[in-house]
């Protein structure tokens, strides 16, 4: 038509149709394949929800057993891939380690290049679900300078992950059911969120018919940024800074309102939710339960509560419809579980993986998919010529 509409940041433009997740941002509603997030968070598990997102229906007990079993059988990393971690400094941010290692997976599984072969898509799905938590735990161990453990396939998905992170060869690992349950619930809350920046990245890369490992590695990089998944890490840094500087919550909020450079209330605001993020409600409940059950007292949780109370009563935040998002309280829980701050966004990535896979598969299976190729409005110099 010759007419190109400008929509910077995709505020009004849908990039795709999708049957996976429904959000009503004004009403604070989130549903996966039609099921309200509140019901799934209370009554199901990470793997069940992963199955729901990827295959469209909740699994029968047999289907779930088979899915779980397949994932357990693929947890090992190739021994050579383990040496990959040796090439990185122990100070490496685990999100960079994660995206690089997932990208490297496609060098081991070149069958994944055959993106239209359903069998290859299926085995790549299982490999990703099985191996991402192992890579994540190795990124953590690498930072600690501790030996990598082999996965223990007698354990559930979440317990295996916790053992890989917190177990050592020196003593037996004791599963803490409070921790497992809480982590499983947090992962469910992160499993999908329709066309967010990382998922859109996965789809865009996938639309070129790049394999699923490369597409998801790109999604992990998009998630890394502090305006997206990196916000959970940024929230904890913000709370610790408020505590250490002694400036007090009210003063900090004043600086946010003055829009001092680089000062935002991290964990607040959302492109889609213009009311309380339904995930944040559930995380807030979990924060109280988990800290109590683990016997942890954290002044940062008190600061977070105070910050929320002040912000929710302030016209600046009311007018702009800024409410706590999913990242506001998660960091406090991850910290109580023993994860270092730099692992927080990695936990988000493990949570989001089933969503990324579901979207990649939906895009890949849709005959209407075209390579993603946005237009631009050119604002550079008009034609000019070399003066020679
Ligand atoms: N603190 C202070 N002011 C804010 C904040 C905030 N966290 N978020 C938005 N605003 C203000 C912003 O300054 C603008 O004000 P004005 O109209 O006076 O210019 C107004 O609210 C609209 O903001 P926006 O930046 O145009 O909104 P957006 O939809 O482009 O951005 C966002 C959404 C999530 C990037 C943003 O709210 C933000 O930076 N939040 C902090 C980071 C964060 O918590 N991110 C996690 C999002 S949820 C999980 C995830 O995706 O990973």
TrEMBL record:
Pathway terms, separated by semicolons: Carbohydrate metabolism; tricarboxylic acid cycle; isocitrate from oxaloacetate: step 1/2
InterPro entries: Citrate_synth-like_lrg_a-sub, Citrate_synth-like_sm_a-sub, Citrate_synthase, Citrate_synthase_AS, Citrate_synthase_bac-typ, Citrate_synthase_sf, Citrate_synthase_typ-I
Annotated Gene3D superfamilies: 2.20.28.60, Citrate Synthase, domain 1 (1.10.580.10), Cytochrome P450-Terp, domain 2 (1.10.230.10)
One annotated GO biological process: tricarboxylic acid cycle
Secretion signal span: none
UniProt-recorded Gene Ontology molecular function terms: citrate synthase activity
GO cellular component, one term: cytoplasm
Catalytic activity: oxaloacetate + acetyl-CoA + H2O = citrate + CoA + H(+)
CDD domains: EcCS_like (cd06114)
Active site residues of this protein: 270, 327
Transmembrane region(s): none
UniProt keyword terms in alphabetical order: Acyltransferase, Transferase, Tricarboxylic acid cycle
Family: Belongs to the citrate synthase family.
NCBIfam families: cit_synth_I, PRK05614.1
Name of this protein: Citrate synthase
Organism phylogeny: Bacteria, Bacillati, Actinomycetota, Actinomycetes, Micrococcales
